[in-house]
Every structure is written in structure tokens, then in C-alpha cells.
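Q: Given only this backbone (208 positions), what sequence would you predict?
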């Protein structure tokens, strides 16, 4: 079994996945990784052992998600967050093949968004998770199943983390609770991230 580097998710995350068959650069593959089952793009072969999951098979047209459906769910989730008066800005959303809706956004003040994501999960019939764009990108190692995202008060320790609290598991350790970054910090963070992605030849597919 070999390992390959795969780019996945709207954030352009890169992980090392085990592959039972060879895949060419640019091939679309279905992976099982830190965020569940989803589609990624093969970048190249990788040295060393896989750390982030498995490449299950080549992706087909049937594995494509619907941008229209993602946009509809994002609008509904944003309206619900606003109606509850939560200090959240939801800016993007992506569906995975594993039945999850990952909402990308920012929390500009501490809040408990667990009830929002629990209600959305029940309404949509999906595992709704929150990826905080103000926090660090996803780690290379998959999180331990029983420990949530590892932050104090997360999941089993009192529900501090919105994504872990709704059964999703954090891809980044990002929680809706905690201090939000300032505008200057966010600008510098995204400028640095964009530069690294461009230097690596990675691109981001926007939500239409």
C-alpha cells in the first residue's frame, strides 16, 4: 500500500492518504479522512506512512455535490443564526459524501451555538459542523474519536465546541466559543494562507 497527497475541502486542505491502487496527479478520488467521506484531488505520491485516512476509490460523476443545494442550506442556516441573535457570520458551506454540512464562518464574540447546529442537523437530516475561519487550519493528524477537538470544555466535557457537540468532530479544533480575531489579524492570516496556497499551486473553488 502506498501513500498519496490529496487536496480536499473548500479550504484547500492537504493530507496524506493510504492508496491500494495508483492514482495519477489530478485524479478525483473519494477519501475517508478527518472530516469524513468526501472527494479530493490527487496532488502526487507521498513518502512515508499515511496519516490522514484512506483513498477509497476513484470518484465518479455521481459523487458530485450540488452547489445549488449547498447555497440553499447556507442561506437557511445564516437566516437562523441571525434570528437567534448569534454573533456568527456564515460565509460558505460544503456538503460531504458522508452526510455532513460544513459551514465556514467567523464568530466575532463568544457564544454557545450548539442549539443552532443541533436544530439544523435535525432539520436538514445532516451532521452540521462549524469551521471557524478565525482559527488555525486543519491539522495533518486525524483527531482521536473520543476526545473531540481537544479543547477544554469540548464535546464530552460540557459542550464548548459546536461541531463536536453535534456529533461532527472538528476538522480544525475550531469552536464557536472563544475570542475572535481582530480584522487586522484576519487580514494578515488570510494573506499568508493565500500566499502559501498559490506557492503550492493550490486553488480554491468558490461556492456559487
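A: Predicted residues:
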Amino acid at each position: 500500500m502506498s501513500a498519496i497527497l490529496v487536496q480536499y475541502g473548500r479550504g484547500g486542505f492537504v493530507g496524506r492518504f493510504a492508496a491500494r491502487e495508483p492514482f495519477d496527479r489530478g485524479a478525483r478520488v473519494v477519501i475517508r479522512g478527518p472530516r469524513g467521506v468526501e472527494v479530493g484531488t490527487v496532488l502526487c505520491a507521498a513518502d512515508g506512512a499515511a496519516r490522514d485516512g484512506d483513498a477509497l476509490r476513484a470518484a465518479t460523476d455521481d459523487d458530485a455535490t450540488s452547489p445549488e443545494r449547498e447555497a440553499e442550506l447556507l442561506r437557511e442556516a445564516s437566516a437562523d443564526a441571525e434570528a437567534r441573535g448569534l454573533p456568527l457570520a456564515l460565509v460558505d458551506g460544503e456538503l460531504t459524501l458522508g452526510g455532513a454540512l460544513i459551514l465556514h464562518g467567523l464568530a466575532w464574540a463568544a457564544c454557545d451555538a450548539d442549539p443552532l447546529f443541533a436544530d439544523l442537523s435535525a432539520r436538514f437530516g445532516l451532521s452540521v459542523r462549524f469551521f471557524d475561519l478565525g482559527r488555525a487550519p486543519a491539522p495533518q493528524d486525524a483527531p482521536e474519536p473520543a476526545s473531540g477537538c481537544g479543547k477544554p470544555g469540548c464535546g464530552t466535557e460540557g459542550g464548548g465546541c459546536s461541531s463536536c457537540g453535534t456529533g461532527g468532530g472538528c476538522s480544525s479544533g475550531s469552536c464557536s466559543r472563544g475570542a475572535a480575531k481582530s480584522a487586522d489579524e484576519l487580514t494578515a492570516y488570510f494573506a499568508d494562507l493565500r500566499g502559501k496556497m498559490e506557492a503550492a499551486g493550490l486553488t480554491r473553488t468558490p461556492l456559487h
